[in-house]
Amino acid sequence: MESILAIETCVPEASVALWVNGECVSEQQFASDRNHNSMVFDALENALSELAGQRLDLVVVGTGPGSYSGTRIGIAAGQGVAIAHSCPAVGLGSFAATSIARENSPSMAVGDARRGLFFISQINDTGEAAPVELMEREAFEKKLTSVEDTTLFTFDDPASLGLPDTLSRRVNRAQPQARVLIDVWQGLDKPRQEEIIRHPLSPTYLRAPFTSKAKAGHPLLR
Questions:
Q1: How far is it, in rounded angstroms, from Cα 140 to Cα 75?
Q2: What pLDDT digit, counting tens, does each position of 77-123 carry?
Q3: What is the dihedral sign for C-alpha 145, 149, 155, 156?
C-alpha cells in the first residue's frame, strides 16, 4: 500500500487530504485562522483513521507563502505525524497547489508583498512554484503586461492589487488545496523528489525572516 498525507494551512480555507493506492480516500476543509488553527488536528485524526493501522509513506506540507501562524502549524503538525509514522515530511510551495496552476500553462502567482512591493512566482515546467520575485509597482505592472499568454492568479482579492482594469480582469482568485499538493508531488521525477526529501522542511517567505537588533545598552549586548 502506498499512502500520502497532505496538509495545506497557509490560507484560512485550509485542508487535509489522504491519498492511498491511487485515489484520494479522505479530504476535509476547515477554517485555519487564529483560534481555528487547532481544527487541523481533528482533520488529521479523521484522515489518519482511514489508514486502519497502516503506516504512512510520506507527508507533504504546503509551505506558503501565506498565513504566518497557519503555515507553521501545518509544518509542525506534518513533522509530528511523520515522526509517528517513521516517514519523510516534505514541503512544496503552496502557489503550485492550486487547480489554476495545474490546469493552465504557463501560469503565475501574483500578489501584494506590502511596504510598497509586489511579487510574482512563475509555475515552472515541473509544476512547482519558482522562488518569489519582489518588485515595485511600475515594474510589477510592466511584467504582467508583458506576459499576455500567462494565466495570473492570487490568493487575495484581485481588486486589492490596485491594478488597471485591463490587468485586474486577468487576475483570478485561487486557493491551494491539500489534494493538489499530492498531484504536484506525484508529477515530479524521482531525482527531484529525492532532492526535496533531503531539504529541511521550512516556510516559504516573501522576504527573508526579519529579526530586530537589540538597542545599544541592552543587557544582551553587555
A1: 31
A2: 999 999 999 999 999 999 999 999 999 999 999 999 999 999 999 99
A3: positive
C-alpha cell of residue 75? 509544518
Going through 33-185 in order, the beta strands assigned E by DSSP cover 58-62, 89-92, 107-114, 117-122, 133-136, 151-154, 171-173
Burial class of residue 34 (count of CB atoms within 10 Å of its CB; 0-12, 13-18, 19+): exposed
Q: Tens digit of pLDDT for each residue in 171-219?
A: 999 999 999 999 999 999 999 999 999 999 999 988 766 555 656 665 5
Query: What does pTM read for this prediction?
Result: 0.90
What pLDDT digit, counting tens, does each position of 1-45 carry?
699 999 999 999 999 999 999 899 999 999 866 655 678 999 999
Q: Cβ distance 147 to 72 under 8 Å?
A: no
What is the side-by-side order of every strand in the sheet holding 13-20? 23-31, 13-20, 3-8, 58-62, 89-92
Is the Cβ–Cβ distance between 42 and 50 less than 8 Å? no
- Beta-sheet strands, E only, within 65-191: 89-92, 107-114, 117-122, 133-136, 151-154, 171-173
DSSP 56: P
Residue written as cell 492589487? Answer: 161
C-alpha cell at position 146? 508583458
Which cell goes with 50?
Answer: 482511514
The alpha carbon of 90 is separated from its chain's Cα centroid by a whole number of angstroms, namely 12
